[in-house]
Amino acid sequence: MSFSEVYINNTSSFFPNEPVSNDEMEEYLGYINAAPSRSKAIVLRNNGIKRRFYALTKEGISTHTNAQMTALAVQSLFKHHPADIKSIELLSCGTSSPDQLMPSHGVMVHGWLPETNPVEVVSPSGVCCAGMHAFKYAYLATKTGDVHQSVATGSERMSVSLVSANFEDEAQRLKELVADPYIGFEKEFLRWMLSDGAAAFHITDKKNETGISLRVDWIEGYSYANELEACMYMGAEKLKDGTLKGYLDYTPQELMAQSILSIKQDVKLLSKNIVLYGGYGVKAVLDKHGMKSEEIDHFLPHMSSEFFRDKIYQQLIANGTPILYDKWFVNLSEVGNVGAGSIYFMVDELFHSGKLKVGDKIFLLVPESARFSYMYSMLTVC
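^ that's the sequence the OP posted. Answer follows.
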C-alpha cells in the first residue's frame, strides 16, 4: 500500500477582542478577596508574557465560546476562496477547555460551520498536546488516503475559569484559617499565564501550486505517565498519595468551597521534570528518524513561560541535540499561553512571515505537564 504525502497548505488564527496588557488583567479577571494579587508580579516577571487575549468583557461577560472562536479560525482558512470550505472531509479539533462536557467540542465547532458538508469529526481531549493529537489524526487520515482535505485546530477559552468569583469561597475559608490569606500559589499562578484563542491548519494530499506548503514529515508522541504522577489538573484535587480525586466524588458545596473546578499545577513537580523529560523525547525522535539537531532551521517550542527558555536550551546541549537560539521562533510574549492552540499560533505566524525558504526544516515541540506527555513534529517547506 502506498501512502500520500501530507501538506499544510494554509494556516489561520483568531483572537477574541483587543489584547490585554499586564496592568489590565485584574480588570477582566477580578480581584480575589477584594485585593490585588500578591503573586501576579512574580509570575509575570518570570513568564515574560506582555499581553494576552480574553473572550470576556471587563464586566465578565463572555464574548465568544471556544467553539465559535474555532469556527472563525476555520472560516479564515478559506477567506479568499469561501466555497472551498465544502471540500473539507474531516474536522479534527483539540482543546483542553471545551464549552461543555457533552456534546464534544468538535461537533460544536461543526455546528458553527453550516456552510460545510456532513463530515467526520473528532475531538481529542487532554491539555496542550490535544491540539497536536488533532493534527496527528488529520495527518494520518490524509496519509492513508482516507480523506484528501482535512482541517485540524487547537483552541482554548480558559479566561472564564480564571475569574475571581471561582475563588471567592476558598479565599474566605483561608481568611478564617490564616492571618495572611491568599489563594495557594499552585492555583493562582495559572491565572497570569493563560490566554484565549483558536487557530487552524488546512491539511491536504497535494501541495499548493503557488506559494509555499509545509510537508508533514512525521509526528511523534511520548507519555511518561507510567513514571510520573499528575502535575496539572482541573476538576479534581490531588491527594497526599499523589492520586487524583475527581469532581464527581465531591458534593456541590465542596466543589465551590475548595475551587475543585479551577485549574491547578504542582509547581515543584513541574520544575523538576518538564524540561528533563521533554529533552529525552527530543533525542528519541531525532534518533528514530536519523536526524541531527544541526539540520533544523526553525525550532518552535511551546513554552508556558520564558522561565523555561534557558533550561530547555541547556537540556538540549546536555542531550547532545543543541539548537542555537537564532533558530528559535516563539511568540509567547505577544499572544500568551494558549495551551492546545499555542503551537498552531507559532506555525501560523511563521508560515505567513515571509521568512521561510524551500527546504527549511521546522521542528515542533509541545510539552504537556498534566501528566508529562510530549508531542513532536518535523515539517519541511516546499
